[in-house]
Amino acid sequence: MYKRDPKLSALLFNEHINNQNLKGLINLMTDDHVFIDILGKVHDREHMVTEGWQNFFDSFPDYRNIFTRVENQDNLVILIGFSVCSYDPLDGPAIWTATIRNDLLTKWQIFEDTKENREMLCII
Description:
Blueprint: H1 6-18, H2 22-27, E1 29-36, E2 42-44, H3 45-59, E3 64-73, E4 76-84, E5 92-101, E6 104-111, H4 115-120
Parallel strand pairs: 1-6
Antiparallel strand pairs: 1-2, 3-4, 4-5, 5-6
């Protein structure tokens, strides 16, 4: 059961990414949370809490996500937009998904914004 719109949980999570707020991210993760990067590598909650996010923030202090479209399919939130970063490989269009359970994120995943990924996620 949700206390808030699943889109809000995903947007709050991203706000914490943009503000480099590790505590805020931790508070929105389920115990079985996973982060899947754009290459498909799976990182568990423990890794993200102990070193993943902090290493990312230290390496890319100007990284930000900006969404132009947010929609959800039940507990899956799809966020389309782009990231802004002085490191070129992290700068540009992308698709993020957030799987929500009881207002918390069980999964945060990043995809390249390609026709194939849009079809796979059933977005036009």
